[in-house]
Fold this sequence. Notes:
Largest sheet: 5 strands, mixed
Order of helices and strands: HEEEEHHE
Number of domains: 2
Low-confidence stretches: 143-154
Strand order of the largest sheet: 1-2-3-4-5
Number of helices: 3
Helix content: 55-70%
Number of strands: 5
Mean pLDDT: 79
Structural class: alpha+beta
Strand content: 15-25%
Distance between the termini: 21 Å
Shape: elongated
Radius of gyration: 25 Å
Amino acid sequence: MGSLRRPTPRHLRRHWHRAHQGSLQTWANGYLKVLLEPLTTGARLCFQSMHGTSKGWIDGGVVLAVSGAVLAATLGVLAAFGGKPIPVGFWGVLAGFVAGGAAMWSYGRAKTGTWLPTRTSQFRLLGDEARRITEAAAPRLQGPSSSTEVADVG
């Protein structure tokens, strides 16, 4: 893992979208978000991220599996009250929907599992750098009688 370099203001403007929501400041770049929330005793720095490809696999898998299950339940009710048996082929298709959805969900979770330790390590480095900058700037900004609180949000 490479070392962190201090981004230039030009880099931040070009690659990060900055927004304010009340007192909360956010910076976003795709699925990566950094949130800075002022507190009475300092500030809380939060990181949010999502693996975009995994999200599609997981969401698609859930939709496919739930759709198959709902259709199977509907056909079961119709068969019970209608008195006509449902052809075996329909049940096979619905079982394929549920199994396919479960496989998609599992694949998405597996992709997240390999990505998550790397992102966690990157966030830890960013948090350490933010803590270092905050602690170095605290005496100048708050005076000698104030303390700096850095919240570790996991």
